From TrEMBL:
<dbReference type="GO" id="GO:0009786">
    <property type="term" value="P:regulation of asymmetric cell division"/>
</dbReference>
<protein>
    <submittedName>
        <fullName>INSC protein</fullName>
    </submittedName>
</protein>
<dbReference type="GO" id="GO:0008356">
    <property type="term" value="P:asymmetric cell division"/>
</dbReference>
<dbReference type="InterPro" id="IPR038205">
    <property type="entry name" value="INSC_LBD_sf"/>
</dbReference>
<dbReference type="InterPro" id="IPR045789">
    <property type="entry name" value="Insc_C"/>
</dbReference>
<feature type="domain" description="Protein inscuteable homologue C-terminal">
    <location>
        <begin position="70"/>
        <end position="522"/>
    </location>
</feature>
<dbReference type="InterPro" id="IPR000225">
    <property type="entry name" value="Armadillo"/>
</dbReference>
<dbReference type="GO" id="GO:0000132">
    <property type="term" value="P:establishment of mitotic spindle orientation"/>
</dbReference>
<dbReference type="GO" id="GO:0045179">
    <property type="term" value="C:apical cortex"/>
</dbReference>
<dbReference type="GO" id="GO:0008093">
    <property type="term" value="F:cytoskeletal anchor activity"/>
</dbReference>
<dbReference type="InterPro" id="IPR031938">
    <property type="entry name" value="INSC_LBD"/>
</dbReference>
<dbReference type="InterPro" id="IPR016024">
    <property type="entry name" value="ARM-type_fold"/>
</dbReference>
<dbReference type="InterPro" id="IPR011989">
    <property type="entry name" value="ARM-like"/>
</dbReference>
<feature type="domain" description="Protein inscuteable homologue LGN-binding">
    <location>
        <begin position="13"/>
        <end position="57"/>
    </location>
</feature>
<dbReference type="Pfam" id="PF16748">
    <property type="entry name" value="INSC_LBD"/>
</dbReference>
<dbReference type="Pfam" id="PF19427">
    <property type="entry name" value="Insc_C"/>
</dbReference>
<dbReference type="InterPro" id="IPR039921">
    <property type="entry name" value="Inscuteable"/>
</dbReference>
Length: 522
């Protein structure tokens, strides 16, 4: 079965299994009804709304969520049919094919109930899909009526081909439907003068972006970035800026979104918003979120960065100001994340930060537990410190701001919840704090401060105890590097066994020794 070009609602999969079953139950029940009714509406009045179709339909957003849930179920069922077909489970294949047939009919009826202006092309695909589903059901029905292995074997390739056709038509229909809905929402945003309609359309568009990168690509290709930046350039829609920018940040996770952003001078618009003090903190924070998204070091497409460099100084200045004046941990996180990403792709950013006294501002923020209140925020701060530490002038700033003490505290970073994302953030904090210490300890004054704060015993413990570093190899390598740098500056701080095992050998040999310690405890 070929992979379907569908937006799989990943949040559905992450849901608790009982909750997932409860969500699906009403759709499954509706499906059984459709088996009997053959998708015929109860009402004989064509214009009368069929009240028996799932009653949760209140808005375009709700309708699309229902459609996506139904599409997710159909996609899952088609995959399962392919698996059962492989094992020649003909009875199961037929029953599941009947169920898919009913789901497809239900989905098309539901969609046509709330959509009055679907295209001729869409109706053609609906007919093709329904015909192919009926053909598929008839095929599998013939299979359960014979026990002749040779006949079944000869029919199997035809069934596989029909299943593939069903999957392709289904994928193309969903693509058309989602494109059509994205076009409708963007048309509302572009043409409406009503604040309420525009806000509602942007909200629905944001909900669509949360369904995965495939939907973000559709929205970007249909001009979503252009339409949203048009909103951000109109003063009459200022109250919608935060919501609009949040939607833009989601769309710009895909290359098509980034290409559109470059096309409409989006970075210049973001710079204008960030440097305009008349905007609310919420607007500035969401603009920072867009900057964080488009400067992510994980992105493989970078064609937008040339225009970013032209506006970098004023953007960095505005982000530092936002960090300094942040009224909440969330605002600080967004601003510091944008700064952290910027420091990865241009050393000039680090020089600008140094001129702006950013080191002092960030270190001061870390002492306020209401602002830097999670490992995620500390991860952003220590990323900036690590990238700035390549500059020689950075050492004195660290000493003045009591930064060595902060780095020492970060070596003790532990997750309080056990959540996997938080544990990973804690590992990054430990690793980057060790990297920063290693880089800064080329300055004797920093090295001396680190020794006095007992950094050496802590680094040794992180190297020797896998549980202290959550079995992280990257933390181990960073700690070994920092320990070796400090050992050069203060050899008397180490016992002979530590020196012989952790400092004297090649780094790779010490690494293997420490990872073998982990195995010996198991």
């Amino acid at each position: 079965l070929p992979s379907l070009s569908l937006p799989s609602s990943m949040h559905l999969i992450q849901m608790d299994s009982v909750q997932r079953w409860m969500e699906d139950l009403k759709l499954m029940t509706d499906c059984e009804c459709m088996c009997i009714l053959q998708s015929k509406p109860i009402s004989i009045e064509k214009d009368e709304q069929n009240e028996l179709i799932l009653s949760s339909q209140y808005s375009t957003c709700d309708n699309l969520q229902l459609l996506l849930k139904r599409a997710w179920i159909i996609s899952t069922e088609l995959t399962r049919i392919a698996q059962k077909l492989e094992k020649n489970r003909w009875q199961r294949v037929h029953s599941m094919t009947v169920r898919v047939n009913c789901h497809v009919r239900s989905m098309i009826n539901e969609y046509n109930t709330f959509t009055r202006n679907s295209s001729e092309e869409m109706h053609q695909f609906e007919k093709l899909l329904l015909d192919k589903c009926s053909e598929f059901t008839a095929f599998t029905e013939r299979c359960i009526q014979t026990e002749d292995e040779q006949i079944l074997k000869s029919m199997k390739s035809s069934i596989n081909e029909t299943l593939t056709n069903v999957a392709q038509y289904f994928g193309q229909l969903i693509e058309l439907v989602l494109t059509h809905e994205a076009q409708n929402l963007l048309r509302q945003i572009e043409l409406s003068d009503s604040m309420y309609i525009t806000e509602s359309a942007i909200s629905s568009l944001f909900s669509l972006t949360q369904e995965g990168s495939h939907l973000c690509r559709i929205i970007a290709k249909e001009g979503g970035v252009v339409a949203l930046f048009k909103i951000c350039r109109q003063d009459c829609f200022r109250c919608l800026y935060p919501q609009t920018l949040r939607t833009l940040a989601s769309i710009c996770c895909v290359e098509e979104g980034m290409y559109q952003l470059e096309k409409v001078d989006g970075i210049l618009c973001l710079a204008d918003i960030l440097t305009d003090n008349s905007h609310s903190e919420a607007t500035h924070a969401e603009a920072a979120a867009v900057i964080a998204q488009i400067t992510s070091p994980h992105l493989t497409f970078t064609q937008h960065l040339s225009s970013f460099l032209e506006n970098m100084e004023e953007i960095v200045t505005a982000l530092v100001k936002l960090c300094q004046e942040a009224s909440s941990g969330e605002v600080f996180l967004l601003a510091s994340a944008a700064l952290a990403n910027i420091t990865f792709f241009d050393t000039m950013a680090c020089e600008i930060l140094l001129q702006l006294n950013a080191m002092k501002i960030l270190l001061a923020a870390c002492s306020d537990k209401h602002i830097v209140d999670t490992p995620y925020s500390r991860d952003q701060v220590v990323t900036i410190l690590a990238n700035m530490s390549v500059l020689d002038q950075c050492a004195s700033e660290i000493i003045q701001g009591n930064g060595v003490q902060l780095l020492m505290e970060m070596l003790f970073e532990r997750s309080s919840s056990g959540n996997s994302a938080e544990v990973a953030a804690c590992e990054r904090v430990q690793q980057k704090s060790a990297v920063t210490l290693a880089r800064l300890s080329r300055d004797p004054e920093v090295a001396d401060a680190a020794v006095k704060l007992s950094c050496i015993p802590r680094l040794i413990k992180l190297c020797r105890s896998p549980t202290e570093r959550n079995n992280s190899d990257s933390v181990l390598v960073a700690c070994l590097a920092a320990l070796r740098r400090l050992a050069v500056m203060s050899p008397e701080g180490l016992e002979d066994s530590d020196f012989q095992q952790l400092v004297k050998p090649r780094l790779v040999d010490s690494f293997l020794l420490c990872t073998n310690m982990e195995e010996s405890f198991v």
